[in-house]
C-alpha cells in the first residue's frame, strides 16, 4: 500500500527515536563538562579537601575559643555549622571558572554549539558534588563535637543538602562576574554574601526550630523554593556574566 502523500509546506513529524537522539545531543555538552570537571577535581585532591579541612578546623576551634560548656555549644551549633559551611563553599568558588579562563578553554565553552546554560550547570553540579555534598555528610560528625541535640541532625542534613546546592548556584554568578580579575576573591565575597544571607537565615532557623520542639518544614520549603529559583535563573545569569567578562 502506498503511504499518504505529504502536502506542500508540511514538515514530517519527528519519530520518538529522532527526538531521543536530539535530546542526547542537547545534553552531551553537559555530560562532557561534568565528566571533565569531576576528573580534574579528583586529580587535584589538595584543592578538593581545602573546604573540608577549613570546615573541620574552624568547628574544632570553636570549643577552644568560646567555651567547652555543652549547653552553650548546643545553642551555638546550628548557626555556627551553617556559617562555616557557607564560608567553606565561598572559599572554593573563586576557582569555578578561573582555571578554564586561564587556559583558554572558557572561550571554547562560549562558542560551543551546546547551550551555555547546560555547560554552566554541569560545572556547578561538580562544584556542589565535591564541596557541598561532602560538607553535608560531614556536618553530623561536627554536630556531635558541638553537642547538637538529637532532634537537630535531621533538619541539619536536609537544610544543608538544599542550601549548599543553592550556594553553589548563586555563587556561580559572582564567580562568572569576577573571573577576569586577578584578585577577585574579595569582590566575589562582596557580591555574593548579600544573596547568601536568606539561605543562611532559613537554614540555621530550621535546625534551631527543630531543637526547640517547633516545626521546621516551612523553613525547608523556603530552602527548596530558593533552590528551584536558583536552578532556573542562576545558570542563565552566570552564562551572561561569562560572556561579559570574557568578551567585554
Please describe what this structure looks like.
The chain is mainly α and 248 residues long. It has one domain. It has helices spanning 16-43, 45-65, 70-93, 98-103, 105-110, 116-145, 153-177, 185-211, 217-247. Helix 3 (70-93) runs antiparallel to helix 6 and helix 7 runs antiparallel to helix 8. The longest helix has 31 residues, at 217-247. The chain crosses the membrane at residues 20-36, 48-67, 79-97, 118-147, 153-179, 186-208, 220-242.
Layout of strands and helices, then pairs:
Layout: H1 16-43, H2 45-65, H3 70-93, H4 98-103, H5 105-110, H6 116-145, H7 153-177, H8 185-211, H9 217-247
Helix pairs in contact: 1-6, 2-3, 2-6, 3-6, 3-7, 3-8, 6-7, 6-9, 7-8, 7-9, 8-9
Note the overall shape.
Answer: elongated
The total beta strand count reads 0
- Helices, by number, come to 9
Helix/strand-derived class?
A: mainly alpha
Question: Secondary-structure element order, as H and E?
Answer: HHHHHHHHH
The helix content is: over 70%
The oligomeric status of these chains comes to single chain
Number of domains: 1
Q: Mean pLDDT across all residues, rounded? A: 84
Family: Belongs to the CcmB/CycW/HelB family.
Membrane topology: Multi-pass membrane protein
Keywords: Cell inner membrane, Cell membrane, Cytochrome c-type biogenesis, Membrane, Transmembrane, Transmembrane helix, Transport
Subcellular location: Cell inner membrane
